Amino acid sequence: MRTVQVVPFDGEEMHTNVTARRGHRSWIEEFIQDFDLDYLQEPLDTVALHRKWDKVFQVDMSSMSSSKASAGTPRFLADIDVYTDGSQEKDLELNTAKTGAGFVIMRGEKMLISERRWAAFDYKLKDKNTVFQAEIFAIKKFCIMMLSHLEGSQDSWITKNGTIDIYCDSQSAILALNSIFVCSGLVGETIDLLNELAQGVRSLTIRWIRGHKGHIGNERADRLARRGRDREGPPDPDAPRIAKATVKSELEYAVRKLWSCLLYTSDAADEEDSVDLGGR
Fold it and tell me: Which of 108, 123, 181, 206 has the fewest Cβ atoms surrounding its Cβ within 10 A?
């Protein structure tokens, strides 16, 4: 699976009916098909590890400090406050999941209204996307949305001297965006968009907010993420590629399932042999 995006030959070219010449790739592909894991052969959300040194936006690390009384609470000091969230619901028995993301834009404690509707958006992601990807994706979609509403646009939401605070309840997502090391295409794209947006305003800061504590913006973003998660139909066209961590966990699940099948078959065969021996 590590080389699925760089293999020189596809499955059809590698196919052979000669059992002795079937390589490990052919066996793995059949294994994947037998367990309905074809989606694992799609391109992954992984890029070569590289560094992104330049950050025009800010990350408020003190918002995650346990020693600070105001940590995890909104400040209501920026011109625009944005609350993002991701949501996932899993069925462990069936090994299935539903994933969604959402964000809401507010001015203080009031919703931003644009074209006679609230600036609230939800997205359905791929079932196998992780909740971490959903958290990052929500920030990415906000940046794309906000870039079309800067000063000079037909429907401007903020001036060049304005300030934006993004509130996210996922510390892992915030730390990934603050890190100079990048190995995820989604994270890299989001950092680039944050930098581009930050260049159009006076300041852009990402802050941590404690989830499920009654903060109105966070609660609304949570509802939007769950609404996107539960929506019927195909995922958003811009939904992230499958994470490398998902490939690993899905293969581990399939291997455990295969091992259980082999053990059951072996036990059944041993029992049948013992019955035959007893009857002789």
Answer: 181
